[in-house]
Design a protein that fits this description.
This protein has a single domain, classed as Spore Coat Polysaccharide Biosynthesis Protein SpsA, Chain A (Alpha-Beta Complex). 37% of the residues lie in helices and 16% in strands. The protein has 7 helices and 7 strands. Helix 1 runs parallel beside helix 2 and helix 5 runs parallel beside helix 7. The chain binds guanosine-5'-triphosphate (GTP) and magnesium ion (MG). The site of guanosine-5'-triphosphate has 20 residues, from strand 1, strand 2 and helix 3.
C-alpha cells in the first residue's frame, strides 16, 4: 500500500531472466502485487520471477500489447505502475512517480525518458526515432507528449474500463496514452525519469517497430 492505495506493478517479459531478477530484487516493499506477463520465454524468466515472489501470468499471443492486456485483466490494485523487465527503467523511482501522481492529482502519469542523461542508454537513432514518433503523436492528437514510447506509466486502474486498446504489439505504448488523452475525465501528466541501458538481448527492431508505430498513430487518428 502506498498512502492508502493498493499498488500493482505489471512487467511484460520476453526472455528477460537477467533483467527481471534485478528489477524484482529492487521492488519497493509497498508494492502489493507484481505481475510478470511471460510470452513463452525460452529462458528462465518465469522461474526467476516466481522465485522472487511475482505472480507469473502467461499469454499465448506474442506481443507487448497482448501481454499488457493480459496483465491488466489480472491486476487488482487501485493504481497500476508499469515498466520493462530489462532493468532500463528505474525501479527505485516508483515512489517518486507515485508521489508525483498523487501530488499532481492526475489519473495517468507518463514517465518520460528525456532528456537522456546516461550516454549509453539510447543511441542517436533511437533518440531521433522517439522524437519523430512523439512529434507525430503530439500533432495528430493536439497535445504535447515528450515521450510517446515510454514503457513506464502510473495510472488508476479504474480508467481502463473506458479505454479501447486494440494493439497487440509495441504500439500499445502510444495507444494507452492516446486513450488517456482523449478522455476528458482523465487528467494526464508527464515527468522525467532516468533511463539506463538494458540488460539482456534487444527485442526491439527500430525500423520495423518505428514505422509500425507511426502507421498505427495515423490509423488511430483517422479511424
Ligand atoms: N510478454 C512479452 N513481453 C515482451 C514482448 N516483446 C517485448 N517484451 C517485453 O517488453 C519490454 C519492452 O521491450 P524491449 O525489448 O525492452 O523494448 P524497448 O525498451 O523499446 O527496447 P530496448 O531499447 O532494446 O530496451 C521488455 O520487458 C520485453 O521483455 C512480447 O512479445 N511479449
Ligand atoms: Mg526496454
Amino acid at each position: 500500500m502506498y498512502k492508502g492505495q493498493k499498488i500493482t506493478v505489471i512487467i511484460p517479459c520476453l526472455n528477460e531472466e537477467q533483467g527481471i531478477e534485478r528489477v524484482l530484487r529492487h521492488m519497493p516493499d509497498f508494492v502489493d502485487e507484481t505481475i510478470v506477463v511471460d510470452n513463452n520465454s525460452t529462458d528462465r524468466t518465469s522461474e526467476v520471477a516466481a522465485s522472487l515472489g511475482a505472480m507469473v501470468v502467461r499469454e499465448e499471443k506474442r506481443g507487448y500489447g497482448s501481454s499488457y492486456k493480459r496483465g491488466f485483466a489480472h491486476a487488482s490494485g487501485d493504481i497500476i505502475v508499469t515498466l520493462d523487465g530489462d532493468h532500463s527503467y528505474p525501479v527505485d523511482a516508483i515512489s517518486y512517480l507515485l508521489e508525483a501522481f498523487l501530488h499532481l492529482e492526475v489519473d495517468f502519469l507518463n514517465a518520460s525518458r528525456f532528456p537522456v542523461r546516461n550516454r549509453h542508454a539510447m543511441t542517436f537513432k533511437h533518440k531521433f526515432g522517439n522524437l519523430v514518433l512523439s512529434l507525430a503523436m503530439s500533432i495528430l492528437f493536439f497535445r504535447w507528449v515528450r515521450d510517446s514510447q515510454s514503457g513506464m506509466w502510473v495510472f488508476r486502474r479504474s480508467i481502463l474500463k473506458d479505454m479501447r486498446l486494440v494493439s497487440d504489439g509495441m504500439a500499445l505504448s502510444e495507444e494507452i496514452k492516446i486513450e488517456a488523452l482523449k478522455n476528458p475525465r482523465v487528467r494526464f501528466g508527464e515527468i522525467s525519469i532516468q533511463y539506463s541501458s538494458r540488460l539482456g538481448e534487444i527485442k526491439l527492431s527500430p525500423w520495423r517497430d518505428g514505422i509500425r508505430n507511426l502507421v498505427f498513430l495515423v490509423k488511430k487518428r483517422f479511424s
